[in-house]
């Protein structure tokens, strides 16, 4: 099945006041009607693919999740490998993998170790790279979590991840090997899968664009409210083009990730909550900037559920949001 490239290409963004790749006014409009519920999204990082090789020549029908830590300050940045994980299914496209259709502030390239052939590429931007331009970065070093979903190689591969400045000059990079049978690659998604419910299902993961709507700031007792709010968000999404005309190309799954506390953190008001992915307002000291830096926890909640894009549904009536293109 063929999809518009600009639809399938994206995989990691927060959204409401997004100023990067995609604008989602539907969420801002519905923030008023969905009282106690605010949406921001974090898409998980997929690339569009453009290359003629057969997917099965190089990849298993699995996902390799690569977790990194981006560290540094305004003057110098570095990339460190944190952990590799294996997920039981690849939900991304299986064609045209080796070209880079969209530009970001970072890039990942996977090469077959034996031949040196490029077998996968993707681009991204990150919250860390936005932070580097903040005043705080001139006086302190920090580290940010980042997770990327890649097709799982059959043979040994070499991955290079690079960060670029505003002039697209590489200012930090890391190259490391992938050994597919490494016993320390964490096997995830085979048990303890988060409860979930499909709101829209038009086919299997290989044939559809898979979107997960995650609960944030909903307690176990509030999951009925979450599912209702998630359906409202789903309906809002498909009331706008181009989603409306492409509705039959999507699967939408609501993921009931429970929080200990109801609501989300608002540091500026001294309100801190214990929630599924630790989201909070006041990102970079901006009152309405709602994000999370706990990227690994997002992906851990979703392990075992096919997904390409993520919407995080935050249980709050405080207006806000954010936008980062990550894939």
Main sheet strand line-up: 2-14-12-13-11
Helix/strand structural class = alpha+beta
Strand content: 25-35%
Query: What oligomeric arrangement do these chains adopt?
Result: single chain
Span of the ends, CA to CA:
21 Å
Per the CATH scheme, the topology name of the largest domain is: Collagenase (Catalytic Domain)
CATH class descriptor of the largest domain = Alpha Beta
Please state the average pLDDT score. Answer: 86
The SSE order reads HEHEHEEEEHEEEEEEHEHEE
- The number of helical elements comes to 6
Largest sheet: 5 strands, mixed
CATH H level of the largest domain: which superfamily?
A: Collagenase (Catalytic Domain)
Taken from the alpha-carbon principal axes, the silhouette is globular
> What's the Cα radius of gyration?
19 Å
Low-confidence stretches: 1-39, 41-52
How would you describe this structure to a colleague?
The protein has 327 residues and is α+β, with helices and mostly antiparallel strands. It folds into 2 domains: 5-45 and 190-325, Collagenase (Catalytic Domain); 55-187, Peptidase M64, N-terminal domain (Immunoglobulin-like), CATH 2.60.40.3250. Helix content is 14%, strand content 31%. It has 6 helices and 15 strands. It has helices spanning 5-8, 25-33, 55-58, 127-131, 223-237, 295-302, and strands at residues 13-14, 38-41, 59-72, 77-87, 106-112, 118-124, 142-153, 157-164, 170-178, 186-187, 196-200, 209-216, 250-255, 309-314, 324-325. It has a 5-stranded mixed sheet, with helices on both faces. It is globular. The two termini are 21 Å apart. The model is unreliable at 1-39 and 41-52 (pLDDT under 50).
């Amino acid at each position: 099945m063929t999809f518009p490239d600009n639809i399938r290409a994206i995989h990691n963004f927060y959204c409401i006041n997004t100023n990067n790749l995609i604008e989602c006014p539907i969420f801002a409009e519905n923030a008023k009607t969905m009282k106690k519920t605010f949406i921001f999204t974090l898409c998980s990082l997929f690339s569009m693919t453009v290359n003629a090789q057969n997917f099965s020549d190089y990849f298993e029908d699995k996902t390799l999740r690569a977790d990194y830590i981006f560290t540094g300050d305004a003057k110098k940045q570095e990339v460190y490998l944190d952990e590799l994980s294996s997920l039981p299914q690849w939900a991304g496209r299986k064609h045209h993998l080796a070209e880079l259709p969209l530009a970001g502030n970072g890039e990942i390239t996977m090469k077959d170790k034996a031949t040196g052939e490029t077998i996968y590429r993707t681009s991204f931007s990150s919250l860390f790279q936005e932070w580097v331009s903040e005043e705080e970065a001139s006086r302190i070093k920090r580290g940010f979590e980042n997770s990327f979903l890649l097709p799982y190689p059959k043979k040994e591969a070499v991955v290079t991840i690079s960060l670029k400045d505003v002039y697209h000059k590489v200012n930090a990079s890391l190259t490391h090997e992938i050994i597919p049978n490494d016993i320390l690659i964490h096997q995830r998604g085979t048990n303890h899968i988060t409860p979930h419910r499909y709101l829209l299902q038009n086919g299997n993961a290989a044939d559809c664009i898979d979107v997960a709507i995650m609960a944030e700031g909903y307690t176990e007792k509030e999951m009925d409210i979450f599912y209702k709010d998630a359906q409202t968000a789903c309906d809002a999404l498909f009331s706008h083009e181009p989603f409306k005309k492409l509705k039959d190309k999507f699967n939408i799954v609501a993921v009931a990730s429970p929080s200990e506390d109801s609501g989300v953190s608002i540091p500026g008001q001294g309100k801190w909550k214990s929630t599924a992915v630790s989201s909070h307002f006041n990102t970079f000291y901006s009152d309405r900037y709602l994000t999370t830096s706990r990227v690994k926890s997002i992906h851990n909640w979703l392990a075992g559920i096919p997904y390409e894009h993520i919407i995080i549904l935050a249980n709050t009536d405080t207006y806000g949001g954010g936008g980062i293109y990550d894939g």
